[in-house]
Amino acid sequence: MEDVVKIENVSITYAGDKEPVPAVRDIDLAVGRERILGLVGESGSGKSSLVGAMLSLLPASSRIDGHILIDGADLYGLTPKERRAMRGRTVATVSQDPFTALNPVVSIGRQLLEFQHRLAGSRREKLENAKKMLEQVGIADADVRMKQYPHQLSGGLRQRVAIAAALLVRPRLLIADEPTTALDATTEAEVIEIIRDMRGAVDGSIVFVTHDMGVVSRLCDDVAVMYAGELVESGPVAEVMERPRHPYTAALLACDPSRIKTTSGDLPTIPGTVPKPTDLPPGCIFSPRCPKVFARCRREAPALTAAGPSRVACHLIEEADAAA
Amino acid sequence: MLSFTLRQILLSICVLVSAITIIFCLIYLVPGDPATIALGPRASEAQKVAFRQEMGLDQSLLVQGWHFAGNVLRGDLGTDLLTRQPVLQLVMSALPHTAILALTGLGWAVILGIPLGCLSTIKPNGWLDRLIGLFSTSVIAMPAFLLAIYALIIFSVTLRWLPAMGAGDGGDLGDRLMHLILPALAVGLAWVGYIARLVRASLLETLQENHVRTYRAFGISNFRIALRFALPIAMIPVVAVIGVGLGNLLSGAVLVEVVFARPGLGSLAQDAVVQRNFPVLLGTVVVTTALYVIANFTTDMIAALIDPRIRKES
Description:
Chain A is of the alpha/beta class. Chain A is built from 12 helices and 12 strands. Chain A has a domain at about 5-90 and about 170-245: Rossmann fold (3-Layer(aba) Sandwich), CATH 3.40.50.
């Protein structure tokens, strides 16, 4: 299987006020061609930093170690100019907040025209393409919308426009960074529907960032679970949902309201908080919150090991292998 | 857009009416008897009474105000107490000089201030930004009249490059321009710094916004993002400040006109104050206020042209 994205030993360190902040540590991950990867984690898990690195949009003060290969090109082996040339052509993104992602004083049509700046074609053709794409993402009166400004559109419509913008450049990699978080449940379902319908328009892969396991199971082929800047489990969605091997993945799934069978007054939570990147526990990073923690976890950090079709960073896997 | 324009016009008229009422009351609180000043200390009491009667100064404030308002509506600003000329004629002959001075002063402040502000944002707190910041704060802190006097001493008296006094010969455009350079410099220099600072702050803020990240994510160059997409948004608050500041600029023009002995509303108002020539003073202030209201109307309209959210009909 040809990989569109290969992330090899990637660590991201921000220059903090007092000390460097290692926000992402040693991630190994690949996204196959025409696959949708769900990148899951709580706030502070480093998922936004990781997609920021894929988009080469991290602040200049951040340090990126390791390699990010997109379509075979080593992103951080390129010059800044070459990296920029990949944006808006090889890579496109839909951002988290549809209310601020579009320029408030430029009409929708004019913005969609600008986003196609790397593509060949006349202004008229590009405007025509923009209109067609708006219709494809389910905007009925595309002609009117093209002339309108973002404030005249609802949140759901704006996110459709943002998705249309990303799809217009026919990217090899589409990064959707929590595109449904700011939307209500009905609109969220519609947006997920659109991305599923439109996956054919992406001549490559989609990385869908979310903290919602329910969204992952409805949309994605593969899933990668991040915790406190590290990858704890990755694998095909069906496998991970059925047999979550890492206690953190299991806990995340247990917190998904749509998977809870019995009605009760309160929602399950994972006790404790995500450790700060500057104050990590020794051993396994999840050990202070893990229900299945044992002595080795507090001493030694587990490596990412294969477990069936998944890869998991947990000592329980090795213990189980040893027992078998 | 049409309803926005109509609303702005109506608002401008309300502001103008209130401002004129306040000014009318304020001016009549100024101590000093116009009759004594107009007729001299040796005029008899009977002459003064006759003068006051003729000018309507013996009537109550309310009646005078009522007459004044009616006259203003007919375009009659009263009669000069000393020369007996219509005030409107005096004001209208002075107005172009001041308008040109204020507009050139502001004009070159805008032309220089905006690029300086943009340059500052290339590397915030870099050496260029600090240099521009130092220059800006220095010129903001310098009073216009002080600058005018030093400019006069250096360029007119010592170097003899530029003329010192007056507005130049009426027919000779080149001569008039030469006479405009120093006063416009004095009026506008502080504004170069002020606009540069405003543009810097506003642009830096706009560049932090999420839609700028969207443009970057599509690989559009930082240069194009800043100038084509962020600067118009950053200019909205700056335009509003320029509108309000034009009043400031007009008062700066008064001092500069006195220093350079230029004709204009400033010199006219100054003479009127010294001579207790109330109709002329009132006429000058009314026209200045009108200018100010027009300037604000214009900047509001420019802001609405940039930002569709402002012209949104609510």
